[in-house]
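Two folds, back to back.
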Amino acid sequence: MRSNFNILSHSWDALRSKWLLAIGLTLLHGVISAVVGGVGMGIGNIALGGALAFGFNRTMVQLYRGQTPAVETYFDGFRTYLPTLIAFLLTGVIVLMGFVLLVIPGIIAAIGLSQVFYVLQEQPERGAEFALKESWRLTWTNGNMWKVFGMMLLSLLVFFGGLLAFGIGLFFAIPLISVMTAGLYEELRLNDAQGGPVEFV
């Protein structure tokens, strides 16, 4: 399994000739999410957030794999709308409850459920319940929680690096982070299939 820094390097290489596509998809996701989030005091986000996350994550996984996603791939979540809605609601409620009870349970839940929409876009026919269970298995059950946490910290560093570049760097940092986190899922998935060792960074 690649280290988090190798995932960063591979993501950069994967975007070498696809920056415009990645930036365009990221802007599309940001604009649509902002518009949807402003509908009905957040009701729009509850209704459509899962489908949008599904499609965006699928495009980022494809970029990490060296593929060229079509723009319409972004809307694939609406083909399996109900599982995305259920996954979005369950994930949100579980993480929120964790943070309400104590901060630590919220962090544990956020790490454990961080792969839900990557799993769901990979196997939409398995449904929301499977996606939640599989995300938890890939992270906590398989002992990869520190690797996931490490990727969160690395993503923050990349984000702040983009900020330091007069903010313009965010146009590159955010797509890069999106491909990195998709790459983390890909490495967890492949390592699990190959029965590889647990890695912490």
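---
second:
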Amino acid sequence: MSSDGVKMFTALCLLGILIACASVSGGCLSGVSPAEEEAGITGTVTWLSPDDGLYAINGDDGVMYYPVNLDPALAKNNTRVSFTFVTPDEDVSAVTWGKPVKIISVRIIEGSPRPVYPHTFTLEESRQTAEQYVLSTKEYTGYDGANLTLPEVVTLKCPSCWKFVYTYDMRSVKDPAVSDRALVEVTVQSGKITDVVSSYGKKR
């Protein structure tokens, strides 16, 4: 084959590759395969723990999305957005809630009505739930519980989740003449108690 023929053959091969790429949604140079990218998702940005920079997007499709790269400018409660995403390359094994996503493109939806989502429980509501539980326990009511305090509140990485650490004084179960100190850790998620850890020892 002559040199001109080789050049022609090479040009035709390149043209064929370009045509094949153009026929695939997103093209060969997008870096994202069609199977990886989701399009047309709309939802509402919702704060879970602003102090920790923890935000989610409540999708209109009923899915709660955890964006690993949400633009800080969009991290505002109740912001309506439309976005596309891929599965993130980062290690998100520690995420225990929502669907981790890496946002490819996002835009704010102006004037769009917000759908009604299930009630988001506040810290105060959750604290009241935990406190009422502790005050109703047989240890507190049956052994003269008093001086209930809340020295620590831990924000957990899930929607409306906190762990409340309570302490109080009580009569010893073994020796009524001795005062014990109770430590009760109550985990509340979405308004419901999901875990309780209690320990009792001599008051110092």
